[in-house]
Amino acid sequence: MLRALLLQAFYSVRSERQLVEQLDYNLLFRWFVGLGMDDAVWNHAVFSKTRDRLLTSEVAQQFFAEVNKQAKRFMSDEHFKVDGTLIQARASQKSFCKKDGSNDDGANFHGQKRSNETHESTTDPNARLYKKSYGKESHLAYLGHALVENRNGLIAAPMAWFYSALDIGPPPVQILDVTGPLEVSSSAPGYEVQLGNPGPDRCLQTNRGVSLTGATPIEEITGPIDTLIITGGPGAETNVYDEVFISWIAEAAARSRRVASICIGAFLLGAAGLLDDKAAVTHWLFCDRLAKEFPRVTVRPEPIYLKDGAVYTSAGITAGIELCLALVEEDHGHQIALNVARFLVMFLVRPGAQAQHSHMLLRQAVTSKPLRELQVWMLENLREDLTVEKLADRLGMSARQFTRVCLRETKMNPGQFVDRMRVEAAQQLIDSSSMGLKEVADTSGFPSAVLSCGFLG
């Protein structure tokens, strides 16, 4: 069967039915899959039902692992690009019917206005209606992405996927709670992002006087949701909740693969009962109130985001961006998430366990502008020999004067200050990368892994 699937891929056979038909008369196909001249071919329906189990079996995994092993020596580790395309779904236009079932079987669709919000395929509900460009015909398809090695044209990582991300919160929403996750999801491949509104309008009000258009009222949001994101805003932390919206959150969560909250959106998840007997986090200013209002929730005030089962919660404002990057990494891997972070020009991608109160941010509170600029240079040059004399020379100071300034601004002498920055850089690498201790020590500027152990405990 694995050989038959290879034939289907190599010769672009569109269906299992057509593949079985060709196996019946094509002698080369019969020879390749091991069928004799008089052997009966498989039933196409049985083949289709067995295919998914085969692809997750040990035999298939060993085959693909061996292919990767043989191809690895031909691949560069530097020159890659991501190519996107539409992969046509095995579903006809006639199967694209209204979600509420108000129309006929979908056969007479010409002249009708159809969209992914109001229609879905009855044979492949995850397929979406896409067109390659303006004026082109629409097809039911998936978003396809391939990581291609440029020198030899080898595909290193293919992906054909669809994720629906729904971002919703009670107005006026905290603007960055909404736009941060929207930017991350829109910058990553394979997501269809939708903005929801608990009210009847298609315009969502924010707490900064800016209105976000294109929102969909919740009563129009039906069908499965991949990721439901509940955002916060002024008043979300009070114990006065819109019962209709809370009921909708509970109902929508039941048809979602995972649910997340940004900032004080955790209070809305709590009111919907989604945080019962789970660990959660919110903005540090409201952690005590969350614990008091929902005693069944284990509130952990330190992390910037938490995962407990299929429920994710995050701390305030920009922590929502970090959480959504973590979701992208879950779906697509570390490299794609890192590429999104680079596109968004993020200085640092923080792991979920990192404290809300950043020690690096506290050190940036120093009043001396030259010293703040020196901190940035030090973070980029931790491998250098950062002696007192070298650091003082960069600021045009004597070693003694630099030591006095450092003690006054950071409450540490220069040596302690350098060690602290290296320790935090090492902790960041340990939390967010697969580097070994020796590589972490080298990147962070420690002379040896043994010495780094003394600082990292």
Summarize the structure.
The protein is an alpha/beta fold. The chain contains 18 helices and 17 strands.
Structural account:
- This protein has 457 residues and is an alpha/beta fold.
- The protein folds into four domains: 2-72, no CATH class; 80-161, no CATH class; 163-343, 3-Layer(aba) Sandwich (Rossmann fold), CATH 3.40.50; 359-456, Arc Repressor Mutant, subunit A (Orthogonal Bundle).
- It contains 18 helices and 17 strands.
- It has helices at 2-10, 16-25, 27-33, 44-55, 58-72, 175-187, 243-254, 266-271, 287-293, 319-332, 334-343, 359-363, 369-380, 388-394, 399-410, 414-432, 437-444, 449-456, and strands at residues 80-88, 96-98, 119-121, 128-130, 139-149, 154-161, 163-168, 191-197, 203-205, 211-213, 216-217, 225-230, 256-261, 279-280, 298-299, 305-308, 311-314.
- Helix 2 crosses helix 4 and helix 6 runs parallel beside helix 10.
- The two termini are 53 Å apart.
- The relative contact order is 0.06.
